[in-house]
Amino acid sequence: xxxxxxxxxxxxxxxxxxxxxxxxxxxxxxxxxxxxxxxxxxxxxxxxxxxxxxxxxxxxxxxxxxxxxxxxxxxxxxxxxxxxxxxxxxxxxxxxxxxxxxxxxxxxxxxxxxxxxxxxxxxxxxxxxxxxxxxxxxxxxxxxxxxxxxxxxxxxxxxxxxxxxxxxxxxxxxxxxxxxxxxxxxxxxxxxxxxxxxxxxxxxxxxxxxxxxxxxxxxxxxxxxxxxxxxxxxxxxxxxxxxxxxxxxxxxxxxxxxxxxxxxxxxxxxxxxxxxxxxxxxxxxxxxxxxxxxxxxxxxxxxx
Amino acid sequence: xxxxxxxxxxxxxxxxxxxxxxxxxxxxxxxxxxxxxxxxxxxxxxxxxxxxxxxxxxxxxxxxxxxxxxxxxxxxxxxxxxxxxxxxxxxxxxxxxxxxxxxxxxxxxxxxxxxxxxxxxxxxxxxxxxxxxxxxxxxxxxxxxxxxxxxxxxxxxxxxxxxxxxxxxxxxxxxxxxxxxxxxxxxxxxxxxxxxxxxxxxxxxxxxxxxxxxxxxxxxxxxxxxxxxxxxxxxxxxxxxxxxxxxxxxxxxxxxxxxxxxxxxxxxxxxxxxxxxxxxxxxxxxxxxxxxxxxxxxxxxxxxxxxxxxxxxxxxxxxxxxxxxxxxxxxxxxxxxxxxxxxxxxxxxxxxxxxxxxxxxxxxxxxxxxxxxxxxxxxxxxxxxxxxxxxxxxxxxxxxxxxxxxxxxxxxxxxxxxxxxxxxxxxxxxxxxxxxxxxxxxxxxxxxxxxxxxxxxxxxxxxxxxxxxxxxxxxxxxxxxxxxxxxxxxxxxxxxxxxxxxxxxxxxxxxxxxxxxxxxxxxxxxxxxxxxxxxxxxxxxxxxxxxxxxxxxxxxxxxxxxxxxxxxxxxxxxxxx
Amino acid sequence: xxxxxxxxxxxxxxxxxxxxxxxxxxxxxxxxxxxxxxxxxxxxxxxxxxxxxxxxxxxxxxxxxxxxxxxxxxxxxxxxxxxxxxxxxxxxxxxxxxxxxxxxxxxxxxxxxxxxxxxxxxxxxxxxxxxxxxxxxxxxxxxxxxxxxxxxxxxxxxxxxxxxxxxxxxxxxxxxxxxxxxxxxxxxxxxxxxxxxxxxxxxxxxxxxxxxxxxxxxxxxxxxxxxxxxxxxxxxxxxxxxxxxxxxxxxxxxxxxxxxxxxxxxxxxxxxxxxxxxxxxxxxxxxxxxxxxxxxxxxxxxxxxxxxxxxxxx
Lengths: 304, 577, 314
Description:
The complex is a heterotrimer.
Chain A: H1 2-18, H2 24-34, H3 36-56, H4 92-128, H5 130-145, H6 148-159, H7 163-190, H8 193-200, H9 205-213, H10 218-242, H11 252-262, H12 269-296
Helix pairs in contact in A: 2-12, 3-4, 3-12, 4-5, 4-7, 4-10, 4-12, 5-7, 6-7, 7-10, 8-9, 10-11, 10-12, 11-12
Chain B: E1 4-16, E2 21-33, E3 37-41, H1 48-56, E4 64-73, E5 76-77, H2 83-89, E6 94-97, H3 111-123, H4 127-140, H5 146-149, H6 159-171, E7 177-181, H7 189-206, E8 209-214, H8 217-223, E9 226-231, E10 234-240, H9 241-246, H10 251-258, E11 266-267, E12 293-294, E13 307-322, E14 327-343, E15 347-351, H11 358-365, E16 373-378, E17 381-382, H12 388-394, E18 398-401, H13 415-425, H14 432-445, H15 462-474, E19 480-484, H16 492-509, E20 512-517, H17 520-526, E21 529-534, E22 537-543, H18 544-549, H19 554-562, H20 569-576
Parallel strand pairs in B: 3-8, 3-9, 6-7, 7-8, 15-20, 15-21, 18-19, 19-20
Antiparallel strand pairs in B: 1-2, 1-4, 4-5, 9-10, 11-12, 13-14, 13-16, 16-17, 21-22
Chain C: H1 2-33, H2 37-42, H3 48-58, H4 64-77, H5 90-125, H6 130-143, H7 147-161, H8 178-208, H9 211-218, H10 223-245, H11 248-252, H12 255-260, H13 266-275, H14 279-307
């Protein structure tokens, strides 16, 4: 619409004069910084990451397995175990903290598995088209034809219980969405005039793909990662319930799963602890994902 | 003195962009008399569209807001009118036609229903009455077989037909005022003429006031009684059309009138707004020598202008797939048996309407699209036979500049990276320092500042980006450049500057151009020879002056006669007396 | 319309390579990676002879290629053999499980879709206003809690404490199943309303910024009429296709809900198969749901041409 063009143009004119040159990433960060809610979410995510990291380094909650009080001590009664204790008298707060480590690592590692697969296959399919595209599309159609939960269960089942299984199962079931997005975006950029211009200047496939197209689709990877974290964290809970999740150490999933038995005895604090811990970080990732989409994809601006 | 239908007084509109408030329309006042046509002219960002939306009460709020002034329609202030009151006026008393005919109609409703809807809303007709009237209206706007066409969906119609349907909707309730916002800009020139004629007939018939918004002074001259000129949110000049065209007062208007190439003779370089006005907007005296129009001469010499490019019987076919297994069932001949020769240092203009194959032809010469058969001899070497390596080397000789200044630069690369990449690919310049100094030199050659190398494309305007694209093409020291609609997306005043730049570079480096455009006057200005294309074939090929002054083929004549003459009606009437 | 027929035939043929792929994936997981199932079935103390016998009985002594073709054959004949755990015909089990699943998922799906759509239209109308922000925030909040938590808390407090619903169980036949599915349906709606409202709202807002909406405004139509007539009609196109593509997941059932409320549906069946290491049942579920998925994608494409006059299949 012409009004939009107009306002953008006038802003552009001013910014060229006043401000230092800023890349698209810089622009996106500038936009994001102004979004107070999104920045709060970013801080929450950083905080959780920090707790997860400290726990992984053994600096906090390393002694979660220690019996600190009586079995099922209710919360807010003793400073030593402020969130109460579980059946074995272990501190629920420490379990929540250790669960943070598990949750963040599940999000991170499953993303690290999904991203290379999704990006490589998506980029190849989108860029080369033809039979390469057909094979890759067939491959991911195969994957996506089996409902996610069944595939997740099957993979987790054949690999056996344990945290590694959770990483792999979640990684292997979540690359398809990313692959599809990347493929579509690469196809779109392939026909943009700047890529054609690079071709006319004598750039080969590698240069066109890596130097020109991929930097223009990386925002999709960032948005994907933000959303993958929350999907992974929620899936970990389901896997734990099915009995294919983490074993031998506390996670939010196992804590919520424990509540199956505990609620009948009116022991609600493990459930509440894990649920609230999970709620804030998943909420933050959700909102952050939306904000990133708005900030990194300027053409969607004003449409939310 | 006729009745004043619409009177805009001291109108101000602000937009909140998130980075601050931008004034889109600043304190403007003008009138639209009943039954007359007022042309509102301006380039992108001038505030002309915002003004028209304000009159309709359609400024998107937020971010936009009318912050001052009045819009008096038949004496009633629309700024103060409630949404409820505005709804009764919109479509019934004031109608609007928009620029994009392709998207202006709802894709899932039949066009008959879309016309009927407004009749049922404002005229209290029953569904049956409204449908019958819709068919009449479609007939009136020149839709063939209106009975059956009313049953069609928008996607089953051409762009011109869709715009006719939009017009039928706009005039359905016989409004007193019709606002048309660039209604023909997206259409081919022959269709544009038909749609303009239609609007004019309807205006006469229904005695409507018409506010016609456009960037094209040629169109304005043909149809408007009065002209209002806007520039950077301000109204700079208004008056009757004849006066504006013969004795414009404001330097911007003078510049706008002068920068548009004519169909007959032109100065050697086009005048631009900056010949009339400096950065601050103050008038500067015009260097009269620049206005002298010259005849085109085409006399290439055999030793200075040898044949550089020879295209023989070139075909490009696109397969049409069908059947269960997606076999190729037919070929679409995008380029059909095209042959021509182009001499060194000369420019061949390639004109035609959308879909005629001119872009495909340009890209197939560079082998960005593979030709199906035929020869492209460049300096005697057949480009269609080159292998990958040879083709890559050849890419330093032949270059292309695209249409869209927004998508033809990689948004994540700085201008330095953009300009260095071609040199890197072809090993031009020994060291990084040498390349950077060449990049700086290139920036200055295309009229930009050399200290802007660290900037990103989005920090430049459309015209500046197109200059960067030219610099990128020049970075490999090419001999031959294809300009594919390279100035079509630019405002007229910027267009003139870029055209001048292309001519300067041609003179300095002895470049050879193929200039592809749908715009006949631009092609006339820049080309030595012109090829007119239709349905993949070249229908006429001759020197520019022959094609424009003595066209032989009927198609060329039709194209030329469809171009707005740019001479006001009043003036034409006087001349004919 | 021969183009459409060709397209449908082509899509049906495409089912073959995809199904071969699905079989390959299932084969890879259960016949190659999973290891020896006889150990799981017979326990650690089984002797070699017993294990060999069982292998032969299950067809696992054949070459890997032959095992793959057994899977492919089952996919095309719908004969998945017998369950290792219950020794029943799997086709029979699935048939019995489908009915309780559908009695839960169809009402759940129907209610949540209609409600989400209505809320989405409502917030789209008030876009940018306080109520829009509030409902969007609520939707994200609802999405940020694990579905398991909803099940646990609702069952505990609504069914057990307040006695508003049956705690668990199932009875066949209408209308006796209704009390048993009531709470699971409520939970289903709570779980799906957040993402659905957000998604539908985006679809509707995508349309609101189109040029034809501006034309409709210029006609003098009211904002309500524009939303309900012009915008909704266009936004429904992606809504319908999205919904249809997701229908197979209804047949699959609500895995967690069924298992938790002891509803003998397909979801619960699958979960118990996982717990019992019942390979053939898991395999059958994977293959059947893949077939359903591909068929419904096709149906969705065909529907697309019916609701959107622009689309011609090719």
